[in-house]
């Protein structure tokens, strides 16, 4: 008796190689569009986060009736608030002869090490504001209890890309 062999259903090596080549070509077309984190996206995300945090500080200063000062040191963005000895000190008007005491809050933002930050604020106005508020530390931004703040711009650079976070001193902080 002879046993008959049944033909096996399988793909040949050549067919498998052709399918893999087609899949590889399709993947090479799609891969650049699904990159994990492009420079543009990370720069936009950092600008949006910084804009949101500064806008929140400006609004909180106005709503709480308390001036806030922002300092930037070693990539840490820190908020300083007045310790309320009396109402005039908390508002930053310093109508008494006492100096305002300032308390440093925890850092509210940490700079991305891959992004360069260049900030611009009118130095003369900043020095006058810090002096009037009896603030002796180094600071870059002042948000007053009245809702106003010193105009500023922060230029964020990553590679050849850049975005600017600007505040005109009265209206919303925006990205340009």
TrEMBL record:
Establish whether keyword Transit peptide is in the entry: no
The keyword Transmembrane belongs to this UniProt entry's keyword annotation: yes
Record-linked NCBIfam families:
IV_pilin_GFxxxE
The species is Marinomonas balearica
Write out the transmembrane intervals. Answer: 12-31
Cellular localization per UniProt: Membrane
Alphabetic keyword roster: Membrane, Methylation, Transmembrane, Transmembrane helix
> What InterPro entries does this protein's entry cite?
N_methyl_site, Pilin-like, T2SS_protein-GspH
Q: Name one GO biological process term.
A: protein secretion by the type II secretion system
* Membrane topology (UniProt): Single-pass membrane protein
One Pfam family in the UniProt entry = N_methyl
A GO CC term? Answer: type II protein secretion system complex
This chain's protein is named Type II secretion system protein H
């Amino acid at each position: 008796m002879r046993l008959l062999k049944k033909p096996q259903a399988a793909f040949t090596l050549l067919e498998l190689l052709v399918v893999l080549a087609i899949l590889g070509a399709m993947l090479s077309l799609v891969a650049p569009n699904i990159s994990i984190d492009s420079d543009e996206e990370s720069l936009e995300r950092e600008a949006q986060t910084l804009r949101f945090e500064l806008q929140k500080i400006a609004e909180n200063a106005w709503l709480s009736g308390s001036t806030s000062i922002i300092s930037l040191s070693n990539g840490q963005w820190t908020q300083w608030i007045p310790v309320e000895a009396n109402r005039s000190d908390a508002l930053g008007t310093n109508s008494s002869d006492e100096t305002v005491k300032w308390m440093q809050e925890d850092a509210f933002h940490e700079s991305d090490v891959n992004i360069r930050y260049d900030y611009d604020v009118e130095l003369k106005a900043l020095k006058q504001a810090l002096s009037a508020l009896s603030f002796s530390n180094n600071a870059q931004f002042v948000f007053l209890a009245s809702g106003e703040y010193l105009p500023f711009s922060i230029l964020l650079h990553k590679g050849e890309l850049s975005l600017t976070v600007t505040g005109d001193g009265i209206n919303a902080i925006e990205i340009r």
